[in-house]
């Protein structure tokens, strides 16, 4: 018998990520409502309220009949208002959890941030085992960290199932931060400045990929774990027991390459290759070419080789189960997942791609000039001076120590857990995502939303 479809309430559904989630739910025919402080769209039922007020959230849950909450609401990063971050992200999330338990809502998907583990140092290929720092970089990430902790702690409380997603560097149509900031730099003629050597890799994530991951998490949140949690066993094993067939299927199946932007390449072999120059074709010429072409479209499964450092190796899976007997890293409920495009690029390459697209809109606006490269240490010194001056005049400086640090360190994340457990695969490439964002911005510009001197 088919399971009953969920009824969704997207908290923050008028915002950037929330709106894309609503649109994807509508496209697949789901019942969805929005809870927010402002109504920007009128295609779904809307409930206005303060998420830090449990009763207002509870009323929306009752009236909508919600069975799955997707909580995306948050003030934007970069505000100098710690109290607002705490009220919305921490108090608001706790109120949502309480309202969900009160109304026996089954599922809660929370939009966290990859920034909750950022401590100012380079993070390369980090996975979900990395604990958040005791002292987060800023008030935004501190509040997100506390909110995520509350969500994960609530998993299993009175039947509530929870999961937290950690997207990194979200951009796309509807974005009012990344695109607005990059355009401001372009308009001011400052695109030739670079802080750092641009050898640091950074994760950007297209917004529709983020929305897609939320739907996957919601759909799979109540999927039974692939093995009984240790807490359900008569005795917690002291040595790693054999993995179940369901667990082995998750960690050993071949994953396709992440090649949306770079395309797929195939290494010729003696059994599958282009023919190349020849006097007479080999007798099996057709088979050689056909096998090579088939590999380009259907890459053969290669064995998954793991080491003790791998997060999904058997010893590390056992360690995770032992540390938390009520859960397993191979289930969705009670887990956190990094969500990115899986295409880390050098930090300044993405802004320059956007600026190159803007050149087609405003030919001749940018004069050709070489890059003015400032070292990270000089950038930090300038930022320190700007922050001191800003403090004296009571104005937020354009250059801050956080921004300099952000642009000069590695920040990219391992998404294998999301790919294997959620079934997440990026749907839109980084290059196509930038094109779609600029196309959206172009529409906004031609309609008069953005005023420029061009």
TrEMBL record:
Keywords: Membrane, Oxidoreductase, Transmembrane, Transmembrane helix
GO biological process, one term: steroid biosynthetic process
Transmembrane segments: 371-393
Keyword Mitochondrion: no
GO molecular function, one term: oxidoreductase activity, acting on the CH-OH group of donors, NAD or NADP as acceptor
Superkingdom assignment: Eukaryota
Gene3D superfamilies: NAD(P)-binding Rossmann-like Domain
3-beta hydroxysteroid dehydrogenase/isomerase domain sequence ranges: 9-225
Homology family: Belongs to the 3-beta-HSD family.
The protein, known as: C-3 sterol dehydrogenase
Source organism of the structure: Lentinula guzmanii
